[in-house]
Write a structure and sequence with these properties.
Distance between the termini: 29 Å
Number of helices: 7
CATH superfamily: Vaccinia Virus protein VP39
Strand order of the largest sheet: 3-4-5-2-1-6-7-9-8
Largest sheet: 9 strands, mixed
Helix content: 25-40%
Radius of gyration: 16 Å
CATH topology: Rossmann fold
Structural class: alpha/beta
Strand content: 25-35%
CATH class: Alpha Beta
Number of strands: 9
Number of domains: 1
């Protein structure tokens, strides 16, 4: 997907995907990862999600990757934190106590930049990418995190009736990307109240990847 698509969405404040609270499915199921306080949690394509606030408040070290500089400037403003900003290769690195965010193309991110990752929380990355990019993304994600365990949240609907993003991710697709490398457990399948846009029936599926 053209990066300009997402830059335009942020520049024009077309961010309906940004919610005013931490995702309830994160709050309900994150403990399934059995992490200790201080564990390092990677959040790909994080935007300025309040999920980051929640993870920080729970005592985790948050590492994020995001294309939009505007999103990350707003994230730190809303956290009330002034980050140290440096450049590493093709990415800008925003850092402060307990948080490191890399701004730019996630495919430029390397494992030695982010260090050891204890878990991945993917709510907005897989569903944001078209299929061919999802294949590249999942391989890249496993490479840079050394196949860290994941809490993965996906939408599922009839893709023939609506164009993404967010794209529909079926159980078969989750298995296609990850079954060779992880033990997969579907934790819940929740109906999205009101569906998408014109009432398109949609479910939100939570996966634990160990």
């Amino acid at each position: 997907m053209d990066p300009n698509f997402w830059h335009s969405r942020w520049e024009n404040d077309q961010i309906g995907f940004h919610t005013k609270q931490a995702n309830p499915l994160l709050v309900d199921f994150f403990a399934k990862l059995s992490l200790n306080k201080g564990s390092r949690v990677f959040v790909p394509l994080c935007g300025k999600t309040l999920d980051m606030h929640w993870l920080l408040n729970q005592g985790y070290h948050v590492i994020g990757a995001e294309l939009s500089k505007k999103a990350i400037d707003q994230l730190f403003d809303e956290l009330g934190i002034k980050p140290k900003i440096s450049t590493i290769d093709k990415l800008d690195h925003y850092s402060a106590e307990g948080i490191d965010i890399y701004v730019g193309d996630i495919f430029h991110l390397k494992g030695d930049m982010i260090g050891k990752i204890d878990a991945i929380y993917d709510r907005a990355a897989l569903v944001a990418l078209p299929l061919e990019m999802r294949k590249s993304y999942t391989n890249h994600l496993m490479k840079i995190t050394n196949k860290a365990q994941q809490l993965l949240i996906c939408f599922e609907y009839d893709q023939a009736l609506m164009d993404g993003p967010p794209f529909s991710i079926s159980e078969d697709e989750v298995k296609m990307h990850y079954e060779k490398y992880y033990s997969l457990q579907q934790l819940t399948k929740k109906t999205v109240e009101g569906g998408f846009r014109s009432g398109l029936p949609t479910t939100e599926n939570v996966w634990l990847l160990n």
